[in-house]
Amino acid sequence: MQLLLHLPESLAERFKQAVPTRQRSAFVASLLEQALPEEDDPLYRTALEVERDLALNAEMREWRDGLASDGIRGVEYAKGEADAAR
Q: How many CB atoms lie within 10 A of CB 76?
């Protein structure tokens, strides 16, 4: 199967310089195999189910929003901004 990917120009140039032409597909395939979870991984399946559970996500949002007013952590922590800044 062929895929069309858009990469930042500087990254594409580094890729072209580092990986010979006839080895690029195998290189990308190897990286994807390492980075992507196995579909039959029980932890991965559980994580997907949690993400799809609207009621659970609503409850988690309530807990997160409640933490913002607990006086211990700021609103940025509750919104996930503190984690993103790390």
A: 13
